[in-house]
Amino acid sequence: MTNPTNTNNTSNSNNGNNSTNTLPQTGEKSGLVASLLGLVLLSSVLYIKRRNA
Predict the structure, then answer these.
(1) Is 19 helix (H, G, I), strand (E, B) or coil?
(2) What is the pLDDT of residues 33-52, one digit of tens each?
(3) Could you give the 3-state DSSP secondary structure of residue 1?
(4) Is the overall model pTM greater than 0.85, yes or no?
(5) pLDDT tens, 3-23?
């Protein structure tokens, strides 16, 4: 009977020296700016509606 799992760890170990294991850039800074802009826009709309009501 064959074992489908690979128990040989020497073929997959690279000790973190391979640059392909780094994560891609996700644009976190632009997402933060967009969130802050949306929060400011939402709060200003709510402020204007309460002021005029």
Answers:
(1) helix
(2) 999 999 999 999 999 999 98
(3) coil
(4) no
(5) 666 555 555 555 555 567 887
On whether the CB atoms of residues 25 and 19 are closer than 8 A, the answer is no
Distance, in Å, from the CA atom of 29 to the CA atom of 12, rounded to the nearest integer, reads 34
State both tokens at 25: 């850039």
Q: What single string gives the DSSP state of each residue in 25-46?
A: P--HHHHHHHHHHHHHHHHHHH
- Tokens 């064959």 correspond to 2
Token pair recorded at residue 38 = 């949306």
In the 8-state DSSP scheme, what is residue 23? P
Residues 6 or more apart whose Cβ sits within 8 Å of residue 6: 12
Contact (Cβ atoms closer than 8 angstroms) between residue 41 and residue 49 = no
